[in-house]
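Problem 12. The chain below contains 501 residues. Write out its predicted structure in token notation.
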Amino acid sequence: MEGFALDVEEGEAPLYARIAQAVVADVRRGRLRPGDALPGSRRLAQDLGVHRNTILAALRELELEGWIETAAARATRIRRDLPDPKPRRFAAQAAARSSATIGFELGPGMEDWSSPPPPKGAILMLGGMPDLRLVPASALGRAYRRIVTAPRSAELFGYGDPRGEPALRNALAETLSRTRGLAVGSDDLVVTRGSQMALYLAARAVVRPGDRVAVEALGYRPAWLALRHAGAELVPVAVDGGGIDVDALEAAVERCAAEGRKLRAVYLTPHHQYPTTALLAPGRRIALLELARRHKLALFEDDYDHEFHYEGRPVTPLASADRTGQVVYIGTLSKILAPALRIGFVVAPAPLLERIASLRVVVDRQGDRLLERALAELAADGEIARHARKMRSVYAARRGALAAALEAHLGEHVSFELPRGGIALWLRAPAVDVEAWAAACLERGVVFQTGRRFTFDGSRLRAIRLGFAAETEARLTAGVRKMADALTCIQKERALHRAQR
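Solution.
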């Protein structure tokens, strides 16, 4: 092959990979045919003006992909049994495949409570969204690089402990002991891919099909779905400004017993109740733990945003006062870092942790070892603690800015209590059709959640959960102005409609 040449395209891929792609392109065009011999590596390097090692790497790539065959003392040739150079028609048309007929019956489905993606550029006032621009990405990237280049790093690419990386479990145990009053060690918790997995595994380990589980009547629907998937029949219990109504819960326990049914567990968010942000009243905390002890209830305590407390000392979890092994404590790092970094954990008595770890193997085998080790390094360096302090300061300012804007522009229409913590406000709007308001705001590029999303029976509730963490103070203020404009337009349209009747 005199004057061998390739059309090597520019790009971000390594040069050896682009040379290999150029050879494949010539095979597909027919310039190179099955059985054709390629020049030797030295000649190729000379013709293409590159280092011979680059050519050797390209040839290795082509051989691994099945395009060429090599043998000692013989020319390198294009294989006669080539990989399929053109995808089959069916595989090339993903859209057609999605509508293919299914040839078997499906099992029971789950309620789909996902939300459509918000419009590009919208002001996101969703109640659980942190500010992704503030993620300590550079520090995380450095931690990853240190891990993968360290001696014996290859072992991290293999199977690990289904309970989570020991280094991260140690770091979490130290943090929980220091900041939340939990006397735990690394063997007292299991790391999961987010708090939703932690609850799902705990529910599967505790709940038997047909058991009843009490939940807050205003609450977090994905948690309810996890409990239902474990076989639970849910019993809603009222919440108010002091959190879950423990007297109503006790009445539910007694009612279940009278019906010959066991109320097995309670799922609740006592620290910044979701969605109302209320704190569980001190007297109720004591009464709840005593009720759980008497009736042998499991308490699934979801402490999803403990770090975000702005006034006074944060309230310690129920688990810190548990002396009889009733509380299954669930937490996460995803709120303080980013939702994509799926790190949750569960603290529970040893027999339950053993079951959770066994279930974890069935569902997911193990977590992301590299991520878990990287976060352990960030914790050891103090980076996560520094980031938490920064987020508290930023979010506290945004909470104040949102509250001030609401008072200035919507004070006649909504009421709220400034929460001591959390990343959202709970607004009551007794004279407003909040569903119509939300739709009008969406048209103006403002996204938030109405009370209906949190009611147990899906009924309408004249309330709004308004998040302040994901946007700057200026955009929060702009969002409230747009909300006020939307509400004014709705009121004018309805007044005009009444006048024309």
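Discussion. The CA atoms of residues 108 and 229 lie 10 Å apart. Students who got a different answer should revisit the alignment rule from Section 12.3.
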